[in-house]
Specification:
Distance between the termini: 37 Å
CATH superfamily: Gcn5-related N-acetyltransferase (GNAT)
Oligomer: single chain
CATH class: Alpha Beta
Number of helices: 4
Number of strands: 6
Shape: globular
Structural class: alpha+beta
Length: about 180
């Protein structure tokens, strides 16, 4: 049985070529990713980096390694997918970080992507709201959600501000100590 949100969301949508009287119901939920979801996650991850490029190239092997590590060592985090009527329509990579300053576990949203045809339907908002509550996607309750957004991705930044994220005082810095092969 897949672990999913405590509440499932249903939406009524008109099927292709349907008359006004024909309405189908779609089940939508965020759930923990399974190994069988890896190919969909990889495709969406590559699409994310095509839309919003990273300074470093992200390979399909890197994505497979990340998913493998998260499954082998779930204390590090997990991958979750947006399942809309059994179609994988989005994913997020969630990473655990303990913060002394905040006094608890921070859920770092390393990546969040929803396929273009499923955007602006409340899916990302639902994930963020569920992570802010005690839910079955994350063990325990975090003290904060954390993410980063590139300055060029104004649409995403505006969305995160609307749902309550704020800029932090401290600048993020990085020193690469090992190159990926």
């Amino acid at each position: 049985m897949p672990i999913s949100l405590a509440r499932h969301r249903f939406s009524k949508v008109r099927g292709p070529g349907a008359s006004n009287s024909l309405i189908t119901t779609k089940l939508m939920m965020w759930r923990i990713a399974k190994h069988s979801d890896d190919q969909d996650i990889s495709k969406m991850c590559l699409a994310l980096y095509a839309e919003d490029p990273s300074p470093m190239a992200v390979s399909a092997q890197n994505i497979r390694d990340t998913l493998s590590i998260l499954r082998a060592e779930p204390v590090r985090g997990r991958a979750v997918v947006l399942d809309v009527s059994e179609a994988i329509s989005g994913y997020a990579i969630l990473i655990s970080l303990w913060s002394n300053e905040l006094g608890g576990e921070v859920i770092v949203i390393d990546e969040l992507y929803v396929r273009p045809n499923y955007r602006k339907q409340g899916h990302a908002r639902e994930l963020l709201e569920s992570l802010a509550r005690n839910n079955r996607l994350w063990p325990g309750r975090g003290v904060a959600l954390d993410l980063e957004v590139t300055p060029q991705n104004e649409r995403a930044a505006a969305f995160y501000l609307r749902v309550g994220f704020t800029a932090t005082k401290n600048a993020r810095m990085r020193l690469m100590v090992q190159r990926r092969p």
